[in-house]
Amino acid sequence: MKKTILLSALFAVLAVLSAYVYFSSLEVKYRNMGETSTVVVANRTIAAGTLIRRNMLATMQVPKAYIQPKAFTSIDDLFDKDGRAVFVALSSIEENEQILPGKVSDASKEVGMSYIIPDGRKALAVSFDTDSSNIIAPGSRVDILASIEYTDARKQYHEAVYVIAQNILVLAVGNDYFGNRQPQQANTNSIVSNGGDEQQNKSLITLSVSVEEAQIIFIAGEHGNLKYILRPVGDSELYKSKVIKMSDLISDIVQTQSPNTRSGSANQEEIMRLINTYSKQ
Q1: Which has the higher per-residue pLDDT, 265 or 170?
Q2: Buried-most residue among 73, 142, 152, 239 (CB within 10 A)?
Q3: Are residue 74 and residue 118 in the same domain, yes or no?
Q4: Which of 67, 118, 62 lies closest to 90, judged by CA?
């Protein structure tokens, strides 16, 4: 009987201690959540490529548990010692979103291309015709089209246009790179070799892409012609695109095999497989 009473008392003490520890830890947790710190946020949507000014920013008290790593804590940190705007948004920053170093670039420093590539992306230089290059600037967003000639399993010749990448950020047009205040003059450190003139430089457009997008754009460019569609500001929608063939436009077209497509059929089949895979995503 005494043993039963002692065990009951022991369990009661353990229960009290467990409850005390639990509620103490809960109190610490909520106390810590209640502790706030100042963080810099956008007070409006800031589009990619925008020079960040003071009227676009605000400070907010945020629980420490919800502050993003390396978030700016002072608006002054986004400006030089004279108070001039120097940071450019690398990607769109939404209203009330915390300002992070990975989403902005200091345009006042000669940091080079590597420092303006958004997190998780790569830079791919692509040659387009010079005339079309005159309509875009660093910070624009484009969709990439590829015109491919190929033969199908029945040895019939086709010409088709595919949308192979959408909503792609333009990092540079020639030597004028994203976030730079002054277009760069061609030099030994330029993206383009000194052999090219200004017009040739402008035809080289550097895109922010994923590895898969880079593979598809590269192989399509090697075996077809590339064009781009310029997107309006704020358009980020990914569209379901249809492959357009010449036979869709001309109903009585005669399907014949082009002499240029008789060789390298294995390469063409690989191109079409990659493009068809990407187009269905």
Answers
A1: 170
A2: 142
A3: no
A4: 118
Name the residue among 221, 215, 189, 223 with its Cα closest to residue 203: 221
The distance of Cα 254 from the centroid of its chain, to the nearest Å, equals: 42
**74: exposed, middle or buried (C-beta count within 10 Å: 0-12, 13-18, 19+)?**
exposed
The two tokens of residue 238 are 């990914």
Q: How many C-beta atoms lie closer than 10 Å to residue 235's C-beta?
A: 11
Which residues, 6+ apart, have CB-to-CB distance to 148 below 8 Å? 159, 160, 161, 162, 220, 223, 224, 268, 271, 272, 275
- Which of residues 63, 81, 108 is at a domain's end? 108
Distinct helix (H) and strand (E) counts, the chain: 6, 11
Examine the pLDDT at 95 and tell me if it is beyond 50.
Answer: yes
Tell me the C-alpha distance between 101 and 39, whole Å. Answer: 13
Among 42-51, 57-66, 165-174, 192-201, where is mean pLDDT lowest?
A: 192-201
Question: Do 47 and 181 have their domain in common?
Answer: no
Strand partners, 204: 127
